[in-house]
Amino acid sequence: MVDRLRDALRDDRIECRFAEKHNLFESGEAFSEASRCHGCHNAPCIEACPTAINIPSFIEKIASGNKRGAARVILDANLLGASCARVCPVEVLCEGACVYKHTEKPIVSIGRLQRYAMHVGGGLVDFEPASPTGYSVACVGSGPASLACAGRLALLGHEVVLYEKSDVPGGLGVSGIAPYKTGAADTLDEVEFILSLGVELKTGVEVGADVSVEDLFARHGAVFCGVGIGADRPLPIGCGEIQGVRGAVEWIADLKLGALDIDSVRRVAVIGGGNTALDAARECAQLGAELVSLVYRRGENDMSGYAHEWDLAKAEGVQLLQHAVVTSIEEVDGCLEMGLARAVSGQATDESLPALQVDLVLVAIGQEGAASIPTIFKSVRCDDRGRILLVDDEGGTHHDGVFAGGDAVNGGREVVNAVDEGQRAAAGIHKYLMGGNHG
Ligand code: SF4
Q: 96 in ligand 1 pocket by Cβ < 6 Å?
């Protein structure tokens, strides 16, 4: 199944031009790095991991040559341990908490060790699903939250079907993660692993259009909603129709999966100061754009993007236009001219700044909530930003039998947060089904 999906990926997609962020450890390197871990009691690295992977335990297994055991420790806590090893911001999670931070010595490379463990041991791990419960669950969407939820439910003995509206499963793992961190084909490997646990995948099926929630409940005892987040928020100056002005998330999806004319783009402006803006700016810089400007309405220290990502962006040549607000964008002589005003406390003033001429504008000022959620799941309640409101910490919503997790709930956090929420929802669904007469 996944081979067919992998064949559907275009060979000429731009993401194939990117080099990987870190090389895979050789076994000798992994052994010597693993040997540096102190195996701390009450290890702060575990505390800092949203899925509480027993990091010293898997590292000790690498050091003792137990490849399968190392991977098993990771997967027992996090079914998407392979993806997380590549895409987690370890600088602010496990590695940021490592006790070596208080010494002159380098921090233990936990992320690279996890990637090594999954690479050499992931295929050796055998899972034995529990006896069939007779219950069935629908997972709507096939991004990290749904994959993690589906995998856990399958291991608990439930029948699980993933409903994905796109032809390619994987959600943001396939279409949104920076390509120097992970490629679409890597994510499909992980989809294949989840399917190997007994999960069924239906692609090209949109819940709310092709099947209704009532249809889902006719077949399934519970539904997990992991549909992610909505479209890029547009600039409030009405320039959405101008060719060359793109939402950053939509543009990154084209970069990862589709066709994109990037070779004629020399000058790029990315509007925003968050992690999506930094990803888009770094991608343009790495693809060879001569000038990449980050236009941000506040100051450098106010940016919501990770400081380590901004440091890398600066090293790659990205320039910051801080305290600047875009007031207009016009097509002039084949390029885009951006009018700018100085901003104070993030608000535009009457003071104009020099205009900026670019070939491409990427807008990364946030995303809308998934607009379809209230119309599809009528009793599910959302906050004023369109995020699903939960009634407990195991994914329960105001709609009986509907659970949720991932970006649709948290508004757009890391893959590891989506995995954690998906797995906790699986525990909630299991209790819901096994404690009552559902299905
Ligand atoms: Fe090992 Fe660092 Fe975790 Fe301690 S904090 S167990 S040294 S990885």
A: no
Whether residue 436 has pLDDT greater than 70: no
Which has the closest alpha carbon to 232: 266, 272, 197? Answer: 272
Q: Is 113 in the pocket of ligand 1 (CB under 6 A)?
A: no
Type of residue at 139: C
Count the Cβ atoms, other than its own, within 10 Å of residue 53: 24
Reduced to 3 states, what is the DSSP secondary structure of residue 254? helix
Question: Nearest residue CA, atom 3 of ligand 1?
Answer: 45
| Nearest Cα to Cα of residue 296 among 243, 368, 367, 364 | 364
For a ligand 1 pocket test, name from 35, 40, 53 the mutation site with the most ligand atoms within 8 angstroms of its C-beta: 40
Q: Assess contact for 115 and 33: CB atoms under 8 A.
A: no
Structure tokens at 431: 């209790």
Q: Mean pLDDT across the stretch 268-287?
A: 96
This prediction's pTM: 0.94
Distance between Cα 100 and ligand 1 center (Å) = 7
Location of structure tokens 């407990």 = 392
